[in-house]
Amino acid sequence: xxxxxxxxxxxxPVEQTRRExxxxxxxxxxxxxxxxxxxxxxxxxxVDGDNCPFRPSCSTFFIESVAETNIPQGTLMFFDRFTRxxxxxxxxxxxxxxxxxxxxxxxxxxxxxENQIEYIPPSVIVEDE
Amino acid sequence: xxxILIIILIGTSxxxxxxxxxxxxxxxxxxxxxxHLFCEKDYLRANFEYxxxxxxDADDTLLFKIGLGYSFIRDYQNGNNNFSRITSSSIWYDDxxxxxxKLYFLLGDxxxxxxxxxxxxxxxxxxxxxxSNKLNNFIYFFxxxxxxxxxxxxxxxxxxxxxxVSSFYDWKSNPPYKSSFTAGILSAVIPGAGKMYLGEWGDGxxxxxxxxxxAFLAYDNFEADHDTRAWIFTGLGAFFYAGxxxxxxxxxxxxxxxxxxxxxxxxxxxxxxxxxxxxxYEFCK
Lengths: 129, 285
Prior knowledge:
Chain A is mainly α. Chain A has a domain at about 50-125. Chain A has 3 helices and 4 strands; from the N terminus they run H-E-H-H-E-E-E. Chain A has helices at about 30-50, 60-70, 70-85, and strands at about 55, 95-100, 105, 125. A two-stranded parallel sheet of chain A has the order 1-3. Chain A has a two-stranded parallel sheet with strand order 2-4. Among the domains of chain B are: about 95-175; about 180-270. Chain B is built from 14 helices and no strands. In chain B, helix 3 (about 45-55) packs antiparallel against helix 4 (about 60-70) and helix 5 (about 75-85) runs antiparallel to helix 6 (about 95-105). At the A-B interface, helix 3 of A face helix 13 and helix 14 of B.
């Protein structure tokens, strides 16, 4: 066994494989958000591929933002993130990276709660979740 | 004959190598071994050996070295515990108190650090009163205590240090923060202007173009009497507009957090280069 060919896999798990497509939700609002995200994942994101340069991805950011704040605030956080995603001149010196190379941009930074902001310099590599 | 000689040689050499008995667990040998580990910077194992000696041959130098060892491996709490065991009659007492001040500082417990300074350096006589005063003054830069006058802060430092400490003071008294309110207002007047105010030009221009594009699409569709499409674009444009105002306020908060982080980092680098105004001990010469 020691000298046999090892069966290494060089594939990295992509975000889609970790997605939770269930409709389980604690409230009507959460159910609505989850339905929108599921529809977006199923009809657009899964077909388009793993193109979001951020972690968490924009759709996951939306769900996490709503879970952390509320629907109106989470929506505003999402539109701000989406605008930053559209910025073609992504600043390498602005965001830290996760180990898989994506920009790390968690919703905790944008809740407007200054005590919650944990600044991470761009030189730091954050462990991928 | 040759084989007999070889057998005699091997047999006797085995006997001789066992003839000198060494007590590796004698206090002297444990100490020698611990000193060797300490000088090899293997502080955790060195401390283990020193702690074995504390039972029968307790001396304050051992306690001080154990404290130093823990502080070198950044186990500040254990370091502090050992320094606090050194009594006032010891020659290491002043050094131990200075080390405690440094370790409370490194632990971020500025309240305890300040109380150590008051109790041990301000009231009593201590050979490190100047060094401790310097370190104590840095507490004002890290904590949220009200800053005293600049002259009071820079007083214990030498001329070269005064320039640097003075610049730290200026920064702390007037930090280059950006107003989140201004950022939000600017983005409300011109979409993206708040982000540009924060130096995020790419995000600002993108926000301006996206909001402008949706506004134009909404206007154009209203003009062409495509009301449904026009309202969809109006809604999307409104969300991007509001999201940008929100994002500008959040970006100002992140900007300020970055400024504070960089200030603290430059303080730490400066203090680390100065060894927190504590002496270098030469136990390994």
